[in-house]
Amino acid sequence: MSKLVKVAVTGAAGQIGYAMLFRLASGEIFGHDTRVALHLLEITPALKSLEGVVMELEDCAFPLLENVVISDNANVAFEGINWALLVGAKPRGKGMERSDLIRENGPIFVGQGQALNKAAKDVQILVVGNPANTNCLIAASNSDVPREQFAAMTRLDENRAAAQLAKKAGVAVNQVSNVTIWGNHSTTQYPDAENAKINGKPVYEVITDHDWLKGNFISVVQKRGATVIEARGLSSAASAANAALAHVKSMNSKTAEGQWFSGAFSSDGSYGIDHGLVFSFPVVSHGDGSYHIVQDLPLSDFAKQKLVVTAEELRQEKAVVQNLLKK
Ligand code: NAD
Ligand code: LMR
Question: Most buried of the four, 1, 131, 143, 301, by CB within 10 Å?
């Protein structure tokens, strides 16, 4: 008898949902020996459109797709789940910052945090809906699920940073490793090239244009979401879904020796970041849902200053949603 994993996706009728569900159902993410049950949550007006997506899932005849539950009630959708991909939230439009969404999207994560108490004990949560770090803080604070099981997505930023470094160095992207995104999924995030490697060598040795590494590289990654919105008229979807699924895969497997990946987790005080802030760190997965934050990476004064700025922004976001936080 093969294993069964129950995965909730919120906002399942949205653009990221559409780019994610078929890959989840195909067996690509949890392996070809694991059946997948999809628990899809939407707001009531989007249920009809979601029914269409469910028809398409059915029409793919995926052998590993056990069943699909759809609901507009988080208590129903989250019953017994092992993974919660919290995507459902409003995206920003042109000219907005992600934090402009906080008052509208923040309250969604109060009820969903509470409903996560219905999940399986081993549930792991990834918040994608923006502003992701602070929405994750709200969900975790309203839930009895241990905080270590919550993360907000910065994997898209990590992938963006790796792609920029590869392009500049003229190498394939899989030759870039150890890229860290520190802090908030926002324009204050710090994509760290100082600790990153290309073919095992420090990026600063391979790319000699250090002005670019300290300037344009950082701002391109920080502003990439807005640049995509400007070009597409819609926020990134396939790349966001891809990053969310990469996060899931990374959490489900042991990180290779000497490697790490980025995710925003509840701070344990590492690198001087306030306890409980949902801050993106370099992490190593143990493959069983647990992880540790990589310690003692060297940070230059330049880098330390960047961490101060992004932590301060997260403190300010936290202050704005204080009324939504339980503990
Ligand atoms: P979308 O508008 O296409 O889809 C969002 C879906 O969420 C809609 O179908 C909507 O009906 C649903 N929804 C709204 N409120 C809900 C609720 N309370 N419960 C369940 N579903 C709800 O948007 P999208 O492009 O899929 O983006 C979704 C979110 O992801 C946005 O907030 C966007 O900014 C964010 N995002 C984050 C990252 C990241 O790197 N963290 C990357 C891309 C997008
Ligand atoms: C992204 O980084 O592409 C998303 O967070 C969408 C956005 O608003 O930028």
Answer: 131
Co-location of 34 and 74 in the same domain: yes
pLDDT (tens digit, 9 = 90+) per residue, 154-174? 999 999 999 999 999 999 999
> How many separate domains does the chain show?
2
Residue to mutate, 10, 90, 181, ligand 1, most ligand atoms under 8 Å from C-beta: 90
292 is catalytic: no
Where does a domain end: 152, 167, 201? 152
| Eight-class DSSP state of 236 | -
> What residue type is assigned to position 60 of the chain?
C
Q: Which of 39, 185, 247, 286 is catalytic?
A: 185
Q: Which residue lies with its CA nearest to atom 27 of ligand 1? A: 91
* CATH code, domain with 43: 3.40.50.720
Q: Which amino acid is at 313?
A: E
State whether residue 303 is helix, strand or coil: helix
The enclosing domain of 226 has a CATH number of: 3.90.110.10
| 188 in the same domain as 109 | no
Instruction: For residues 146 and 248, state if they share a domain.
Output: no
Q: From CA 160, how far away is CA 263, in angstroms rounded?
A: 14
User: Which residues fall within 8 angstroms of residue 278, CB to CB, at 6 or more apart?
Assistant: 133, 134, 136, 137, 140, 150, 151, 152, 264, 265, 266, 267, 314
The string of pLDDT tens digits covering residues 254-307 is: 999 999 999 999 999 999 999 999 999 999 999 999 999 999 999 999 999 999
Where does ligand 1 bind, in terms of residues with CB under 6 Å?
10-11, 13-17, 41-43, 46, 87-92, 108, 128-130, 132, 153, 156, 185, 235-237, 240
User: Is any atom of ligand 2 closer than 6 Å to the C-beta of 130?
Assistant: yes
